[in-house]
Amino acid sequence: MARGVVDFEGMRGEAARAIHALRPGVGSAFTITKIGHVVLKVRDVALSATFYTKVLGFRISDYYPDTMMTGTMVFMRCNADHHGVALVGGATDDARGREMHHMAFAVDTLDEVFKAREHLKSCGVNIEFEGRRRAGCQIAIEFRDPDGHWLEIYWGLDQVGPDGAIRPPEEWREAFSLEDAVRDFPPGQGPRR
Prior knowledge:
single chain; alpha/beta; 2,3-Dihydroxybiphenyl 1,2-Dioxygenase, domain 1; four-stranded mixed sheet; about 20% strand
């Protein structure tokens, strides 16, 4: 991803206008209210389950042995939902971002992002990015799990109100460290810690 680049012309061009014009189908019989869970294919279920529990704090809800799911399966939760992440064994190679770009986990406070960064470093996890991205303006750290899946822990993702108004690109405040991100908040993203 190009750092520091905001292509205003491309973001407002014909292709962008066509994408922004898309609307939900009329008369749909259902409404999706949240993203429920992600199931990741991994090489070593025990190693990955250890990472997600010991490093990220997920709790195990259920386990399927190989007799129930080829490769075994582990269901993990971070809230009251039975599972938010599940792991299935059988991957033969690292994830290379071909199918999924990344998965992100929200925390309630900015302090937790700083604490997560220090915790991950103490666990030997390499931080791939820290700071603030452009669209959405969340303050985040990004890293990889043992299989190479790109993960993010974030705080402060912009919320879209009923009027559909989003933050204009002119208000984005891209930053490449957590410290820089908190020195230059975009309008409305106060320094709540």
